[in-house]
Specification:
Length: about 180
């Protein structure tokens, strides 16, 4: 998906994509109408994760995935992301997902709690990918402060500041993995 110069209006906000590593990747929209994606997002730091969700939805919809095939699940915090993603790969009542996008935001505080949460969430998401054999987009922001988190979850992107939306990046990665291995 080439979003380098692509701007689209979603919920009244301009969004663009700057992802030099994936500039040459184009999604074939023909087969995307049957793709089902789960987006799992932490409620903690919702001022950030809400924007990550919007970024992921933007990419998915503009790739040809119908809105009805995009399911959003909210969990309390980043630590719960791996469990929720694992459950979504095993539950028979849900649609069979082609990919999952995990979104969260952990901001460093004054204790080692930050390190434990980031490390275990990352480890857990990696285990889900390998055990479930489906792509999981890693959209966990691990920042030193709120300003860094805001910079990585922008809806209106000012290219001069190098701002981006990591929800878009996580969605791009999942779509590329689906395309590559389907």
């Amino acid at each position: 998906m080439n979003h380098k110069y692509f701007e689209e209006n979603i919920e009244g906000s301009k969004m663009s994509k700057k992802s030099p590593s994936r500039d040459n990747f184009e999604i074939n929209k023909d087969g995307m109408s049957s793709v089902h994606i789960a987006v799992v997002a932490a409620k903690w730091n919702s001022n950030i994760t809400d924007n990550l969700i919007k970024g992921a939805q933007f990419v998915l919809k503009n790739s040809g995935i119908p809105e009805k095939n995009i399911d959003i699940y909210r969990v309390p915090g980043a630590f719960e992301l791996p469990f929720a993603c694992q459950k979504l790969t095993n539950v028979q009542k849900l649609p069979s997902y082609n990919g999952i996008i995990a979104l969260g935001c952990v901001i460093r505080g004054e204790t080692p709690h930050f390190d434990y949460i980031c490390q275990e969430t990352t480890r857990g998401l990696g285990e889900v990918v390998l055990r479930a054999n489906i792509p999981v987009g890693y959209g966990l922001l691990t920042t030193d402060d709120l300003a860094q988190a805001e910079q990585r979850s922008h809806i209106e992107i000012n290219s001069a500041l190098g701002q981006s939306n990591k929800g878009q990046d996580a969605a791009d990665a999942v779509l590329e993995m689906i395309h590559t291995f389907s």
